[in-house]
Write a structure and sequence with these properties.
Shape: elongated
Number of helices: 16
Strand content: 5-15%
Radius of gyration: 23 Å
CATH class of the largest domain: Alpha Beta
Helix content: 40-55%
Largest sheet: 6 strands, parallel
Number of strands: 12
Length: 414
């Protein structure tokens, strides 16, 4: 089966571009003539040949979703590449990642569908973002909804990440809908030997200290020598919508409550990620100038590789109280599960489907008080093994690629 992949890979680095890169590598790389094939899996394993148009429109994370005149020219250029591949290689299946609820991104989708769709037999949409159907019904004029439906409907296949995503696929009258979880390469294959023992010791120590009990020297050493510090990690784009400022206030509120109770325990927040807007960066810098915040908050910027593994291994809790409109199955969330990190998060979009229904770390969006309570509640709960097990069962790259290939092949069936 031949598949035209019309989607960008990093840079800029975000969940969607990363997942497209994993798919291309897993399916044997780009088969366009003259392209270097970065083959990770045997090309024949899944029976899919990918012909990739790297439809990169944004220079960096700050440029995503913004209008720029040069983007229109790039769209035309990428569409011409797709049409050329259609006839040069005989590719008749068109894979595309539709927009979240953003006007500029929606207009991009209009142009791509207008120019490319007539040349391809099957259109496959992979819904990495969620909420387009709701946005079309509540935030745009009827003329925009009409144009969207006219250019998209019907779709041969919609691949969704969760049951929440079904509304988006059904809005465009998808003939077939398949649920395929995201999946990543295991970032912590030595979890049982290098990470879990330390986690257990620290959770036990935190539980004792929060109950105003003392630790002996052996317990202190097993917990890394600093069991009185609960290390909270925020790893995402740094914005209000992703929950950065709610996380900061939640950690500060928790520390004030702990101090008021006379506890020796304190929380320290590590933040990793790029800022989306200059305004939010200025707001953050002004906030952490205060001494109380400066002693608690550490900002690392964008991290990857060994540094990313280090902060995930050393963290005690993962805080991600997102209310981002297009949130679906974020990669940072899956990485935290792989490292067995208890997660404080919101009942937002697809996130509740990734965790047990009675999970104790759910909070409302933009609620620092609830975040403070959840952080203290989870600090002494050893959930590492159960979260790691959920990752292995549902969110590994092997499961993702196998299920994704099966879904894509389904367009060839009656």
């Amino acid at each position: 089966m031949k598949l035209l992949v019309f989607a960008n890979v990093p840079p800029p680095h975000h969940g969607q571009s990363y997942m497209v890169q994993l798919m291309l590598n897993g399916f044997g790389g780009d088969h366009r003539w003259g392209r270097r094939k970065t083959t990770v899996e045997p090309p024949s394993r899944f029976g899919i040949e990918c012909y990739h148009v790297d439809a990169r429109l944004s220079r960096d994370s700050k440029d995503i979703g913004k209008f720029r005149g040069g983007k229109i020219f790039l769209i035309f250029w990428y569409c011409l590449q797709a049409i050329w591949c259609r006839f040069r290689y005989g590719v008749d299946n068109f894979y595309y990642v539709p927009a979240p609820g953003k006007r500029v991104a929606l207009y991009r989708d209009w142009l791509v569908m207008l120019f490319c769709r007539p040349f391809f037999k099957n259109v496959i949409l992979h819904w990495h973002a969620a909420g387009l159907a709701e946005w079309l019904e509540t935030s745009v004029q009827i003329r925009s909804r009409t144009v969207t439906y006219r250019l998209f409907k019907p779709v041969n296949l919609s691949i969704v990440l969760s049951r929440f995503n079904f509304a988006d696929a059904e809005k465009l009258l998808s003939r077939r809908i398949c649920v395929v979880n995201n999946g990543i390469p295991d970032p912590c294959p030595d979890f049982a030997t290098s990470v879990q023992p330390r986690r257990r010791a620290r959770f036990a120590a935190h539980g004792k200290l929060l109950a105003n009990e003392r630790l002996d020297a052996q317990e202190t050493a097993a917990a890394g020598g600093d069991p009185q510090i609960i290390k909270v990690l925020f790893l995402a784009h740094c914005s209000h919508d992703k929950g950065l400022f709610a996380t900061v206030e939640g950690v500060m509120t928790a520390n004030r409550q702990l101090a008021a109770r006379g506890s020796v325990v304190r929380m320290k927040l590590t933040i990793a990620g790029n800022f989306v807007t200059a305004r939010e960066r200025v707001e953050f810098d002004r906030l952490v100038q205060a001494r109380e915040y400066a002693e608690t908050v550490e900002y690392l910027g964008f991290v990857s590789g060994a540094e990313k593994r280090r902060i995930l291994s050393e963290a005690d809790l993962f805080c991600f109280p997102t209310c981002y409109f297009g949130e679906n199955q974020p990669v940072n969330f899956i990485e935290a599960m792989a490292f067995g990190l208890p997660i404080v998060t919101t009942r937002w979009r697809s996130l509740p489907e990734m965790l047990p229904q009675d999970y104790p770390g759910f909070v409302d969006p933009k609620s620092p008080g609830q975040i403070a309570d959840a952080l203290q509640r989870l600090a002494g709960m050893d959930l590492a093994e159960s979260l790691r097990e959920m990752f292995v069962r549902c969110f590994t790259l092997e499961h993702h690629l196998a299920n994704l290939a099966e879904a894509i092949h389904s367009v060839e069936k009656p």
